[in-house]
Amino acid sequence: MGYLYHKQLVYLLFLSVSLASCSPNKQDFMQCMSTQFGAFTKSFATIHNSNSSLYPSLLESSQQNPRWLNSTAAKPILIVTPFQESEIQSAIICSKKLNLQIRVRSGGHDYEGLSFLCKTPFILIELINLRSVEINLTEETAWVQTGATIGELYYNIAKASGTHGFPAGICPSVGVGGHFSGGGLGTLMRKHGIAADNIIDAYLIDVNGKILDRKSMGEDLFWAIRGGGGASFGIILSWKVKLIRVPQTVTGFTVAKTLEQGVAKLVNKWQYIADKLHEDLFIRVIIQDIVGQNNGNQKTVQAAFNSLFLGGIDRLIPLMNESFPELGLQAKDCIEMSWIQSVLYFNGYQIWDPLEVLLDRNTRYKSFFKGKSDFVEEPIPEVGLEGIWKRFLHEEIVYMIMDPCGGKMNEISESEIPFPHRNGNL
Q1: Could you tell me if 122 and 101 are in contact, meaning their C-beta atoms sit under 8 angstroms apart?
Q2: Which DSSP helix (H) or strand (E) runs through 269?
Q3: pLDDT tens, position by position, 38-76
Q4: How many CB atoms lie within 10 A of CB 318?
Q5: β pairing state of 235-242 and 141-145
Q6: By three-state DSSP, how is residue 368 classified?
Q7: Would you say 409 and 305 are in contact if contact means Cβ atoms under 8 Å apart?
Q8: What is the average pLDDT score of the chain?
Q9: Angle at Cα 37 formed by Cα 34 and Cα 40, nearest 5°?
Q10: What is the pLDDT of residue 16?
Q11: Which stretch is the leader sequence (predicted)?
Q12: For residue 142, what is the enclosing H or E element?
């Protein structure tokens, strides 16, 4: 929040007022909607209450974490699934008039349920129908609606060009709306920064139902929505992003080691070099507990060094031999591919799978879980790593993913956008 005050923002546009003494029903909301935008809301099939047959499936459609489906969690009075801007404008105005909070969801993941939970009466605006992607290769830009997933964005870029990409996240079923407005880490961030660094315009509907672009909203508000959480300031309809150039050939590798194979020293070394490697090289570490096949089927800890290199094997091997020889990377461990194939590779698909798998909005891994993120400024000492291994061996299922910063991330000021985790973070 200190970074918001740093920019002296005065745009905290709360999308509701004080609570009413009794909750309005669907009829009240529909009546208000028709009054506001009767010419455009010809069908109220976009408004669903708990009696609607579509309500349960809509509510659960993008809930990756089933722990939020329990009966005690507050549910929206209505779910609005707009097809056009006017329906969103009227929903904002009517929620104010009827004293309702608003939650906005773009059809992707939400580990903590913040986009569909509220302690007071609220409506949920689900933007899943607003998902178009328009690529302009002449400008090297794209307009992407908030309800699209990053998989849909990647797919459309790849269909238009074999030499363009975009620096966003790994999992294709993540929604663009929350991902971009929260920052957007990914495998290209050491070369090109995060997703929010590459946003150059946006359309936003403010608390009064007005549609604003970058020029009309002003630079302070445009600054705030790129990494500061867009839903605090309005409902973002679409983003204009700057496409980046990618080489025709990139290389991926995954080398896994267990405790018995000396993984502790490898992870410790990785901490000291990962942020200092060439910016074309991204190596993350995925740590998990497994049943080892070479130690009598006893539980052990495994770390997989999972990498994307923006170039071919011939450049990668000498670079690794110089900077991280302890890993012992060999050409046979590496796979050359296109950038879009690397998107498949990092999400666990085969690189020759059809690109249409990126259009699947269903989350591949649904489970009850708790996720936590942090930024590391000093390497975890070896005694700390040993403590982590011990804890892992006592858990049924546990993962820890360590992503490297450095490169381009060090070159961007911590106040350039509200995402401040730049130089100094490993």
Answers
A1: yes
A2: helix 263-273
A3: 544 555 678 888 888 888 888 887 777 878 777 677 889
A4: 9
A5: antiparallel
A6: coil
A7: no
A8: 89
A9: 100
A10: 36
A11: 1-20
A12: strand 141-145
Alpha-carbon span 227 to 346, nearest angstrom: 24
On whether the CB atoms of residues 77 and 123 are closer than 8 A, the answer is yes
Closest among 127, 128, 100, 88 to 26, alpha carbons compared: 100
Cα gap 352→345, rounded to integer Å: 9
For residue 171, which amino acid is it? C
pTM, rounded to two decimals: 0.91
pLDDT band at 83 (very low <50, low <70, confident <90, very high): very high
C-alpha distances (whole Å) from 423 to each of 150, 214, 322, 408, 426 are 26, 27, 24, 9, 8
| CB-side neighbour CA atoms (13 Å) of 235 | 32
CB 123 within 8 A of CB 79: yes
Q: Taking a C-beta distance cutoff of 8 angstroms, is the pair 81, 129 a contact? A: yes
State the amino acid at position 242 in one-letter form: K
Q: What is the 3-state secondary structure (H, E, C) of 178-220?
A: HHHHHCCCCCCHHHHCCHHHHEEEEEEECCCCCEECHHHHCHH
Q: Is 400 exposed, middle or buried (0-12, 13-18, 19+ CB in 10 A)?
A: middle
Task: Give the strand order in the sheet containing 133-136.
Answer: 133-136, 141-145, 235-242, 199-205, 211-212
- Chain-centre distance of CA 224, in angstroms? 17
Tokens of 31: 């009546």
Element (H, E) at 33: helix 26-37
Q: Where are the beta strands (DSSP E) in 18-140?
A: 47-49, 78-80, 101-105, 122-126, 133-136
Place of tokens 């630079």: 219
Burial-class residue 13 by CB neighbours within 10 Å (0-12, 13-18, 19+): middle
103, β-bridge pairs: 124
SS3 of 245, please? strand
The single-letter DSSP state of residue 242 is: E
The one-letter code for the residue type at 132 is S
